[in-house]
Each structure stands twice: as structure tokens, then as C-alpha cells.
Amino acid sequence: MAAESHGVELGQVVALLGAGVAAVTVFKRAGLGSVLGYLAAGLAIGPYGLGLFTDPQAILHTAELGVVMFLFVIGLEMQPSRLWKLRAQIFGLGVAQVLACGGMVTGVGVALGMTPVVAFIAAMGFTLSSTAIVMQLLDERGETASSRGQQVVSILLLEDLAIVPLLALVAFLAPGGTEVGSSRLEGVLIGLASILALVAAGRWFLNPFFRLLAAAHAREVMTAAALLVVLGAALLMQLGGLSMAMGAFLAGVLLSESTFRHQLEADIEPFRGILLGLFFLAVGMALDVGVVMRAWPTIVLGVVAFMGAKAATIYVVARLSGSSHADGLHRAALLAQGGEFAFVLYSAAAGVGLFVQETNAVLTTTVIVSMALTPVLVLALRWFEPAEPASLEGVAVPFGLDGCVLMIGFGRFGQVASQSLLARGYNVSIIDTDIDMIRNAAGFGFQVYYGDGTRLDVLHASGAGRARAIAVCVDDQAAANKIVELVQSEFPLAQLLVRAYDREHALHLIQHGIDHYVRETFESAMAFGEKALQVLGVPEDEAAAVADEIRARDAERVELEVAGGLQAGTALVLGNAGKPTPVPLTRPRRAARALSDATARAMGAPDGAEVGSER
């Protein structure tokens, strides 16, 4: 029997992992995100799907550790000084949003026929957004550290704190709640003591503790210690009646300036990812299809009304606090759902007699459906979110430029290429469309103008008609081709130099008769290979001779490709399938070197330019 029991448990583990891997892969490839994939997988294998699991709440309690670890990792990125700067957003914006959304959704609940007390508790539970889902979506979109992401994180932190007074309020509202409420006040004091204890431990104990463990040089002990800190902080907050996630976040903040921060993050990351995925699976399992079938009109109406009212309120609060239209839409889409704290609040209300079990089930299902809809809303946001106009404050636009050379594109390639021209005293006019790069370049003494080189009016304003040479250094092949076409048509007297993306692009440029081209990676790769030979003990002059031969081979290959297509001349490429047997050049090496320069000039590259193969 024991063996059979363990076999069933192992089968459930395999089912969890298999469903998660399969669903997330499919949903990610479809562009729907991992969260929706986990929720769908949980619904498929849960008690209302294939029935492989009968108690999703047990899994949900364990999986909440994923949220705990996620908040710990976020805390590691939040130095106390940085968190202090967010105090106005946490206690200003966060409080304003919770109160406004709570009031609005309460009104909606009353309008739907709920009693004021039930409507208030339902509304406040729905007001507390899902930290797990929102943080995962921010992480997937790379927005956690952005300004809009930091505002969302601040609101979520306030909502984590709000669960404590809300639970106390439920106790006061309960029948006979005065006595219970007085004990809740004592619980609040215990919670504050727990926070102070955690802060004291973080300030005077954690860093010496990790230094002692690091001296032991035992990697597994450091991993165990990282888990101990996260779970210990969560347990301390739970004992104090606070959020476990809040405890983990505070522990992360206290360790954010530690020298062990990156090691802790690396140790926690695998556990965080697996448990957070398990949390989303458990939420999917907890969706009671029976309740949905019995009360689907109520649930649909509740989801639409609650999410609509909350999203509209979030948008208004965002606009009143000075956020842009796009940021308001972004925040409304991310935070319009109810969250995992609603489960706690609704259970507490049911436990003290404020809710009947059917109301608890309907409201809990409404929250779960809203959580499942959030990734869809965020995906739909791209159709409604307006493109933010780039701010040109402090950025000059070209007008009447008269540089001897016009450089279009000032990324890494253009920055290096400009040095030779500037070293010889040439007047170089530079345009680019990357505003951040333009501002950064100013700090290094460059005047870069904002301008799109694919527009003829911008080329005129940038002095293309007066420039002796136009250097196209953009990293976009299509944009480079369009600029080439415009320059050849409108400014035929200017010498044209083009950064080629690869060999195929170089052949395209040759066929369109450009003056000079340079393949962007060839010459740096040649230098790398020559240095590798020297490291292996090849004398410097021999390594240089090998490099010359490779350049000559590539020059001959280019000549063949111009006549016979991209596959012509492949016999000249040295492969590693067996011992290489190089095809001899059609001319001796010295002559081939001359051919390399001559072919480069004939094909449109300056002497010594890169004309080889990186394909």
C-alpha cells in the first residue's frame, strides 16, 4: 500500500510538471504568456478537469511560497534608499487607489443587490490585486525596474499591508465583534513587533551570518541558508498576523546592500520559478466549474462590473496623480483583477458569519476568473495603448548642417568609425533616432542631431547635398537600403559608404553599385582569429600572413558570388569536417593580396576594408 501511495504521489508530481511544461510552451508560442498557460493547465488537471487532484487548496497553500520567494527577489533589488524614495507612491498613491477602488466597487456591489456590509467586504477583497500575477507579467515584459513598473510595485506593497487592517475590520463587523476586535488590536501590535524584530535581525545578524557561512566554502549550506532566511522571515510575519510575502520582501530589502545579494538571488531563483508556476497551477485548479455552471450569470456580471469599476477608478487615480494616458491604461489593465488576499479575506468573513458559503464560493470564483483574464487584458492593451511620443527636450534637430561628412546612425559602429574622421580634423555631422543615445553622447562631447535618415527632407536639412561623403552606419538592413536608394537618387555627387549587415547584404549593395561597403563583423573577427593564432604560439608575422590569405580567399569568393550567386565560391571556405584541404587560390598569395585590394575597390570597399565571410 505504501508503495502504491508513493506511486500515486509521484504520478501527481509528473502530472503537475508535464501539464505546466506543455501548456506554458504552447501559450508562450502563441504569444499569450506563461501565466495564462499555467492557469489553463491547472484547470485541465484539477478536480473539475481530468480530476488528477481533489484538493487544490492544499497545493495552493504550499505554492504561496512561490509568491514569497518572488517578493524576496524583488526586495533584493530595492535598496533602502530607493525604497525611501518610493514612500510617497506607497503611502500616497497606494492609499488613494485602495480607498477609491474600495469605495467605487462597494457602490457597484450595492447596486448588484448585496447588503452594504457584504458589498464592502467583497469590494475590499477585489481591490487587493494579485501580487503574483502582476509581478510575473511585469517580469515577462521587462517592466519591473521601469518608472511605471515601480509605481505598480509600490501599490502592491501597500495592498499587502492593507490586508492587516481589513482582517481586523472583518472581526469588528462580525456578530459579537467588539470582543474579537479588541483582540485584533492586540494582533496589530504583535504585527508591528514582528516587523521591528525582522528589521533588527536584518540590520545586525544577517550579514555576519552569511559571512560566517561563506568562510565555510559550502555551496549547499549557502543555498539552505538563503531558503532559511526567506522562509523564516515569512514565518515571523505570519505569526505576527501579517503577509508572508511582506516578510520576505523586507528580508530582501535588508539584504539588498549585502555583498551576498547576487549569490542569494541565484540560489533562490530556481525555487521561486517552480513554486510560482505551481501557485498559478493551483489557482487554475481552484476554479470551481460547478459554481460557474450554477451561478454563471452572477459571476459574469460580477467580473464585468467589478473589473470595469476598478479599472476605471485606477485610471482616474493615475491621471489625477500626474500619470500619462498610456500609463493610466497600463496600470488599469494590470491591476483590474482581484488577488490571492481576497481568498483570505472572504474565508475570514465566512468564518465569522458575514458570508454564507455560497456567497464565498461565488466571490472567490469571480476573483479567480478576473485573475485569468488579466494576461488577456494586458495582451489586448497593445491595441489601445497609444504610442508615447518621444520627448525631444534638450535634443537638437538638424537644420542647415554643413559637415564635410554626414554620418547616419551613431551606435557602436558609428562611434568607432567617427574617430578616424575626427582625428584628421574633418567636420562630421551626425544624426540618429535613438534619443537616449543622443543624450548620452552629449556627455562624451558629441553633437548628435535627432533625424531619420530614411526621410529625404531630413537628409536635406542634415546637409547631404553639401557633404563630400555620406556614411550609412545604421544597424537596420532595410533602413540602410532605403537610405542608399535616396542618396543615389538625390545626392549622386557624394561618396557613399555603407555598413553591410552580412555577406548577403554586401552582395545586394554591390549589385546596386554603391561606392564603398564594410561588413560590420568581418574585420573584427579577422583580428580575433589572428590573435588566437598568436596565443597558440604562431609567430606574429606568420599569423599576419594567414590573415592576409584569408582576406584574399574572401576577396576571390566575393568576386565569384557577384557572378554566380551566394553559393558560388564555397569551396574556398575552410571547414572543420575532417582535415581541411584548402582549395588553392587562382593566383599566388602576393598577387592574391593585390587582388584583394583591387577587388575591394572594384566591389565598392576602401583598401583594407572587410570583404570576407561571416556566414
What would you say about this model in short?
Helix content is 68%, strand content 4%. It is mainly alpha-helical and 615 residues long. Helix 6 (116-127) packs antiparallel against helix 17 and helix 9 (177-204) packs antiparallel against helix 11.
How would you state the average pLDDT, rounded?
Answer: 77
Major sheet, described briefly? Answer: 6 strands, parallel
Counted by DSSP, the helix tally is 26
Output the radius of gyration.
Answer: 32 Å
Based on DSSP secondary structure assignment, what is the total number of beta strands?
6
Q: How far apart, in Å, are the first and last alpha carbons?
A: 61 Å
Class per helix and strand makeup:
mainly alpha
Strand-residue proportion: under 5%
Strand order of the largest sheet: 3-2-1-4-5-6
The portion of residues assigned to helices is 55-70%
User: Which outline best applies?
Assistant: elongated
Poorly predicted regions: 1-8, 587-615
Set down the secondary structure blueprint.
Blueprint (H helix, E strand, L loop, with lengths): L1 H28 L4 H12 L10 H21 L3 H6 L1 H25 L4 H12 L3 H10 L6 H27 L3 H28 L1 H10 L3 H21 L4 H11 L6 H25 L3 H6 L1 H25 L4 H11 L4 H12 L5 H28 L20 E4 L3 H12 L4 E5 L2 H8 L5 E3 L5 H6 L7 E4 L4 H14 L4 E6 L2 H9 L4 E4 L2 H14 L4 H25 L24 H15 L12
Helix pairs in contact: 1-2, 2-13, 3-12, 3-13, 5-6, 5-8, 5-15, 6-8, 6-17, 7-8, 8-9, 8-17, 9-11, 9-12, 10-11, 11-12, 15-16, 15-18, 16-18, 17-18, 24-25, 25-26
